[in-house]
Amino acid sequence: MSTNTPAAQVERHACPKCDAPAGSPCRTTTGKVAASYHTGRFALVPALKAELTVKTPADRNPGKAWTAGAPVPQVPDAIPGAVIRLGYARCSTVGQELQSQLDMLARADCTRVFSEKISTRVKERPELEKALTLAREIKAAAPNQPVVLTVVEMKRLARSAAELMTLSSTLQADGIQLELLSGPLQGVYDPNGAGAIVFAVLAVSAEVEREGIREKTLEGLDAAARNGNVGGRPSVVDDDKLAVARARHAKGESVTSIAKTLGIGRATLYRHLGESA
């Protein structure tokens, strides 16, 4: 194998994930040759950091039992290369579109983009966790390598102060920066530096905005109620149906039979008959 191939460059380093020594391919937990080199390993090669996947060559027998290769001298720690941007896009419902976010992330030169359609009220967001996991792997292999989690706007990550503070703690612990592509705080923030203050401000702002929306909604419902407009779905039992039901019930017909004929639930009919008694 040529010493200039991506695989040869990767194997000049020991793997920080599977402990394969320099000169050997990566191995799986079952003791076989891995089909691809682990991310944390090839992230140590500046020229390959943007690849995020390097296949194990055929002469290393991927899928076969792992054996150590000829040892080679390990190279010094890699000099940090260009910033690695990992993009994340999210919208709340299937009916909303993601493409505008994906386009902005592509223009921001994100090496890889993770996206999903899921509400912020759902605590488990698989694609966000995948993005954070990949960022951690890169930082673990190359601690001095700048890694940035890029989003179009803060609300794509979280809506509550608690969620934002949890995310801030995660990014701080792993040395991952955050980039906002739009909004009043557009820019890149290092949570271990001055960016920590920005995270706190963002958290409070998100909570205040959410509380404001809630208060306006409650005020609107209260005003509508004072004007005789009650929120919720319209009743399935109108005055005409109730009049028919009362007349038939007065003649001795069972509630079950009346409800079936009128196409309404028995419990619903019982409630309306009781209210009109």
TrEMBL record:
Instruction: Report keywords, A-Z.
Output: DNA recombination, DNA-binding
Keyword Cytoplasm assigned to the entry: answer is no
Has UniProt tagged this entry with the keyword Protein biosynthesis?
Answer: no
What residues form the membrane-spanning segments? none
Pfam families registered for this protein in UniProt: HTH_7, Phage_zn_bind_8, Resolvase
The Resolvase/invertase-type recombinase catalytic domain sits at: 84-228
InterPro entries with a match to the protein in the record: Homeodomain-like_sf, Phage_Znf_bind_put, Resolv_N, Resolvase-like_N_sf, Resolvase_HTH_dom, SSR_resolvase
Q: Which PANTHER family match?
A: DNA-INVERTASE FROM LAMBDOID PROPHAGE, SERINE RECOMBINASE PINE-RELATED
Tell me its family: Belongs to the site-specific recombinase resolvase family.
Listed name of the protein: Resolvase/invertase-type recombinase catalytic domain-containing protein
Q: Which organism is it from?
A: Streptomyces hiroshimensis
